Amino acid sequence: MSATIKEPGNAAPDASFGAYWLDMLWRSVETADTLRQRAANMAEHEAAGMPPLLHFESEQIADGRDLQPPCNYRLLRVTRCGTDALERHVRKGAAPVMVVDPRAGHGPGIGGFKRDSEVGMALLEGHPVYFVVFDPEPVEGQTLGAVIRSLASFIDIVALRHRGRRPIVYGNCQGGWALALALSHCHHRAGLAVLNGSPLSYWAGERGVNPMRLLGGFTGGVWPAHWVSDLGGGTFDGAWLVQNFEGLRPEGIFHKYDTLFAQPDVERDRFLEFERWWNGFYFLGREEILAIARDLFVGNLLEDGKVVVDEHCRADLKSIHTPMVIFCSFGDNITPPNQALAWLPAVYPSTESLVDAGQRIVYLTHREVGHLGIFVSANVARREHRAILHHAQTIERLAPGLYEMVLEAPPSPEASPAARFEARRIEDLTFEPAPAGFDSVRAMSEALERLYAQWVSPVIQAAVSPGVARLLRPLHPMRASRMAWSERAIPVLAWMPWAAAALGRFGAPDASREQNPWYRLERAGAEGVGEALAAWRIQRDLWAEALFTQTYATWSSPSVSSNKEPR
Question: How far is CA 146 from the centre of its chain?
Fold first, then answer.
């Protein structure tokens, strides 16, 4: 009788079951060890003062603390790209590029997080690169106006260093709208302004996709930010902003940890690299966060030119004469195209008014990448960001008007994508900049903020000193949930590396796990959990939209705009 030879994928049930459980035990230990290492990295980063997480070497050119009014921003010049030596590509006379990272709870570095990034593509295209960073703690009494004036000064400093050649300024999320404020401040100019995932129309959005804009209606407006800043001893903890981001899409948080658990041997390094940035929580000043919440996100005053930068200048988007590129994505639930583009018809009633203003605006959309992917995706960096920089001079030479940048396949994998610029009309942008109900939220916010500032804030400020606030920082849920995996909190975690190595001697990890039917069953279950969380999130956001509309808008008010792509 001949023997039957079994293929690896057709192993006996008992053998596949045993292999699965041994592999799952190893994956559990390795995942726990990865979370332990994340806590250690977080503690090490905080002990070092949370320096910027740049992949590139740099030198400091200017410090915002030396300017008037002072702020915690600094201007760096990228000097070297390690063994890749991208700095050798820099062309003499090429326009400098100044990248401004977002200050929205995290530290700086996401625009130069790795080789294939905005900084890397700028170097590859031959541009000298400058990077704007900020320190973990704000200057005492720091205001939004101080930040805007510092960014405007940095633009002038870079231009002076290059014989008057105005820089291409690159702003990510908050960095983008901050640059827009700087360029509208007393008529500062740059060579080109690139705004990536940057909201300028704060009330705009679409039903069930952008719930963050509704937050003011459910929390009472600005006063919670004031309260948290008072509890922070005069500073606002960026961990609250990061917590809001995670709450927007719970299935994304589940998939992050599930992906690590599914293949820790593949995902460990990538997970730790990203988490080192994601869990570096920075702080904003009380006056600064109140101005951001009051004038921008709740007040939406930027479209009307009512944001006061300082005692003698207001931010007016009409006064920006620098050519602009607006890069946004339909997969972005934080800054969808609505928030990135709806300000255009609010500021320029017609295409002719845009042309008469002598302004040229180009928009580029992505169909699916999420908010963070706009900044960190290597594929987006190699395609969209490299194309923007490669065609910068073409954009600067366009006739005044509105254009859509359409990318084409590059002639070779190493080359920059080709692009064409198709004329569009302001009238064809269907985004509604001011849906009904948000003006009522603004009025309510102003009333509650006056009551809080007069009756509650003085009491809390007297009770919570900066020293007490620093002692309370580790108790924030975002920090406590990470540090709970440290060896100090759970001493047995110190044995995780040994346990993983010991299990490895028994045959784990299983390189053929994807062929194991029990592993495939586990993955199907995890996929079902993710889909259930996504379904719950969709229903949550739709109910929030309905409740907001019923509470703040009238039955006859216009509905929130659709997801129609701009053409």
Answer: 22
